[in-house]
Amino acid sequence: MAAIVRASRTLLAQSPSSASSTSFFNSCRRRTLLSSSSLSFVKPFQIRSMADSAFKKVQIQRDDTTFDAYITGKDNAPGIVVLQEWWGVDFEIKNHATKISQLEPGYKTLIPDLYRGKVGLDVAEAQHLMEGLDWKGAVKDIEASVNWLKANGCKKVGVTGYCMGGALAIAGAVLVPSVD
């Protein structure tokens, strides 16, 4: 456990542009490019409408700011905070959250918008957004998201993420005491 705590603190202290994290994010880039190419036959407006239809947008207050979050799933079910890849809150992450919410016995998923409405449309933009992310602020967003789910009927709440969100999920699991 101590090793995980040290790794999380190191992660928060490092800039995502450092040499050690560059290879990690390059692997995320390759995976995302491969998975998004499988949807090339679907028009962008169809993707947006398919993903958005199941989600309710809410605003969550944390100590120093308010941010948007997207919720789907069963009420009063266990909650899962789903953290975005470096692209932002896009169809891919909403699709993952929808699938998680439909697993048995049913879950309520919440996606905090860590980029405050911005989405990377190409690799350069996604990398720019990720490098500009306030990682300590993102952990505060995770904590506020967990607390929101608990205040709204979820007795237990976990955290998961993809690519950049996976690193933040580890940090959240270690640094946010209210994560079960």
TrEMBL record:
Keywords for this protein: Hydrolase
This protein's record includes keyword Hydrolase: yes
This protein's name: Carboxymethylenebutenolidase
Domain Dienelactone hydrolase: 67-180
UniProt key word Glycosyltransferase: no
Pfam families recorded: DLH
EC number assigned by the record: 3.1.1.45
GO terms for MF: carboxymethylenebutenolidase activity
Top-level taxonomic group: Eukaryota
Family annotation (InterPro entries): AB_hydrolase_fold, Dienelactn_hydro, Dienelactone_hydrolase-like
